[in-house]
Amino acid sequence: xxxxxxxxxxxxxxGAAAIFATAPAAxxxxxxxxxxxxQDVLYPAVADRPTPETELxxxxxxxxxxxxxxxxxxSLVANEQxxxxxxxMLTRPQDYATFVAxxxxxxxxxxxxxxxxxxxxxxxxxxxxxxxxxxxxxxxDRSDALVTGLGxxxxxxxxALATGAQAATRRLAAEAGHxxxxxxxxxxxxxxxxxxxxxxSGGFDPWLALGVFAxxxxxxAQIYEAQRRLTASQTVExxxxxxxxSS
Length: 247
Hints:
Shape: globular
CATH class of the largest domain: Alpha Beta
Strand content: 5-15%
Radius of gyration: 30 Å
Number of strands: 5
Oligomer: single chain
Helix content: 40-55%
Strand order of the largest sheet: 1-2-3-4-5
């Protein structure tokens, strides 16, 4: 009996350890831009990031566009390190913009556009509220027409991508009837939040995993001890009866 219980305990602990060891990889799975843009307006190509000054100017412009009624999120994709799902998206910015917009729409309607800027060009997807507040989805033909009007690709590296994104944002907002001021103040550093890197963007909590592991261990140990005591009590031989002697 003890050997069976010991094997059960060992199996339980091995299973818990396997969950603990593989949890980071499972939770880290996901698209970097989609995770970052859920909470902010910019994914700044963490694999080749623009200078802080350029990044803050772009953020300030995006905040200004939002305040002017033209919400737009920007993903700067400098190289394959900024992607996890499909590395070919680096050369297919329009398809990637459609993908990111779809990911952002999973939990709630996306109120705004997603502009993707890669070394090969631009991609645009999403939707905008009309004058009545209803969401109007940007179809592929309209996206292609707007992207064509943005001109050639911005160039290589995060700095060039961020500069191209500023010009593209201004042009898109103006064409939509929301021209931005000629001078827009940069965002304050505290408002420029850095997105999680692809390796930790899943929000894995090691303390939570450790707590689960400890809980499983204690539960299995308690079961083992209870069974051990029960088995021990059942195997205790009764004391021999004293026979009475005749006088």
